[in-house]
């Protein structure tokens, strides 16, 4: 499943008393056929809505219209109260107290459906549910009533922004989600200065977490999963006392920049794998750095991903492809030529076949382009390209830059 959610899911598992880690086995049950409209062939029990949402978002940013069946599957997963669970095999059965809904799946679905447009009824209900489970400190936990964490609070901020809400105005007992994030930011005199913690540890101490830091930077900037290059927050460079969300974002970005400086990538936080690259969190870091306006470190890490992440994405599935596409989008790079890999094509191949209407529209468009070419348009386009190349600025139409880490 998506690495970015692993810490949050494990936290949720602890809350609900599950006996084994959420992602212990990603193979689907042999007795249960997966929906044809779902992206990926791994067990969707813990990440179905999340990976579907990321896939739809990534396709949308790349200019691809997702198949209607895929969008309908996502909207059909919503419970009557507006929340989403990771996966409901039987949507004819109403959600009840045993349905494991959570804030992360719900907020991701909101961001995807808001981007696609035309689903206000679904997103309005979902945002209403998110507001109803906001904690007194202004943040959100993975599950309703769970302690606030940086990742969950940040993804909900992204959902609020996606539907036109101002996160600062969404309060509980006078506290906004930005207030919650500030309490999870490490001070400049602490080990891991400027980073965000996922949650306080058992002793109430804040421990730097790269994944949470990437999420915290985006959340503090009021941005969601999809973001373009930013201009940089109006905050001091380096680590300064975080009295504002903008300064907390700047501090977090500085921490990520330092963490990425040596190799251009983050390393795994899993026991026994500390020397292994963390591709997913590196991609998330690229997005965060780009949003903050830290283009140089974002570009360096995106270049590393272009050279090294293709096999990881192929092994990991749609959410991984989506993370790389969103990283490319954030830095202005071309996801269709990502180190020689067409990420958009690879992602699309993990999902449902485009509808007959979509296929027909694509064929009609290709026929139209052919007609234009036959009429002489293609000749003049070729001449124009030759002229551009002749004056030495052909690079202007090449692919673009790169991005992020935890």
How many β-strands, per DSSP?
2
The class by helix and strand makeup works out as mainly alpha
Taking the alpha carbons of the first and last residues, their distance comes to: 17 Å
Number of domains: 1
Q: If you consult CATH, what is the topology?
A: Glycosyltransferase
Principal-axes geometry comes out as globular
CATH class: Mainly Alpha
Q: Order of helices and strands, N to C?
A: HHHHHHHHHEEHHHHHHH
Strand content: under 5%
Mean pLDDT equals 83
Tally of DSSP helical segments:
16
Q: Percentage of helical residues?
A: 40-55%
Low-confidence regions: 1-27, 356-406
The biggest beta sheet is recorded as: 2 strands, antiparallel
The whole-angstrom Rg is 21 Å
Strand order of the largest sheet: 1-2
Named at the architecture level, the CATH assignment is: Alpha/alpha barrel
Protein model, in words:
This is Prenyltransferase alpha-alpha toroid domain-containing protein. GO terms for molecular function: catalytic activity. Residues 53-163 form the Prenyltransferase alpha-alpha toroid domain. The protein is an all-alpha fold. The chain has a single domain (3-354, 367-397), classed as Alpha/alpha barrel (Glycosyltransferase). The chain is 49% helix and 1% strand. It has 16 helices and 2 strands. It has helices at 3-16, 48-61, 68-76, 103-116, 120-132, 150-162, 177-183, 210-220, 245-260, 279-292, 295-308, 310-316, 318-331, 343-349, 356-374, 377-390; strands at 266-267, 277-278. Strands 1-2 form a two-stranded antiparallel ribbon. Helix 8 (210-220) runs antiparallel to helix 9 (245-260) and helix 8 (210-220) runs parallel beside helix 10. Mean pLDDT is 83; it is low at 1-27 and 356-406.
């Amino acid at each position: 499943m998506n690495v970015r959610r692993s810490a949050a899911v494990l936290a949720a598992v602890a809350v609900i008393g599950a006996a084994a880690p959420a992602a212990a086995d990603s193979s689907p049950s042999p007795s249960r056929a997966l929906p044809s409209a779902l992206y990926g062939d791994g067990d969707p029990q813990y990440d179905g809505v999340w990976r579907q949402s990321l896939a739809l978002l990534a396709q949308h940013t790349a200019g691809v219209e997702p198949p209607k069946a895929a969008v309908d599957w996502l909207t059909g997963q919503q419970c009557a109260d507006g929340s989403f669970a990771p996966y409901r095999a039987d949507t004819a059965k109403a959600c009840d107290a045993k349905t494991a809904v959570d804030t992360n799946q719900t907020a991701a679905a909101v961001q995807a459906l808001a981007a696609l447009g035309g689903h206000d009824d679904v997103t309005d209900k979902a945002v209403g549910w998110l507001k109803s489970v906001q904690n007194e400190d202004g943040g959100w936990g993975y599950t309703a009533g769970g302690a606030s964490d940086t990742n969950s609070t940040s993804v909900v901020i992204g959902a609020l922004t996606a539907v036109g809400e101002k996160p600062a105005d969404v309060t509980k007992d006078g506290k906004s989600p930005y207030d919650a994030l500030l309490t999870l930011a490490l001070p400049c005199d602490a080990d891991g200065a400027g980073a965000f913690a996922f949650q306080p540890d058992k002793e109430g101490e804040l421990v730097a977490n790269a994944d949470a830091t990437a999420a915290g930077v985006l959340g503090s900037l009021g941005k969601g999963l999809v973001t373009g290059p930013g201009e940089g927050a109006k905050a001091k460079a380096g680590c300064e006392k975080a009295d504002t969300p903008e300064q907390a974002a700047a501090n977090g970005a500085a921490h990520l920049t330092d963490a990425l400086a040596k190799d251009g990538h983050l390393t795994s936080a899993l026991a026994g794998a500390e020397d292994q690259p963390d591709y997913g969190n590196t991609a998330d870091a690229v997005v965060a750095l780009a949003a903050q306006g830290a283009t140089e470190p974002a570009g360096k890490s995106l270049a590393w991903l272009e050279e090294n992440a293709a096999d990881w994405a192929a092994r990991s599935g749609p959410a991984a492809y989506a993370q790389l596409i969103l990283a490319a989008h954030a830095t202005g790079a071309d996801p269709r030529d990502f180190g020689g890999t067409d990420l958009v094509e690879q992602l699309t191949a993990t999902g449902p076949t485009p509808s007959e209407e979509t296929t027909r529209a694509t064929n009609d468009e290709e026929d139209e382009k052919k007609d234009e070419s036959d009429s002489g348009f293609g000749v003049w386009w070729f001449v124009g390209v030759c002229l551009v190349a002749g004056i030495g600025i052909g690079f202007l139409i090449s692919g673009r830059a790169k991005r992020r880490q935890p």
